[in-house]
Amino acid sequence: MNPRKKFLLHFAMWAMMAAAVLAMPIAASAQQNRNADITQTELRNFDRFLDAHPQIRADLRKNPALVNDSGYLQQHTDLKDFLQSHAGVREEVRQNPAAFMKAERSNESGENRGMEQQPHMQAALQHLKQAQAELQRAEHDKGGHRVKAIQLAQQAEAEVQAGIDYDNQHDTERH
Question: Can you give the residue range of the structural domain that contains 175?
Answer without folding.
Answer: 118-175
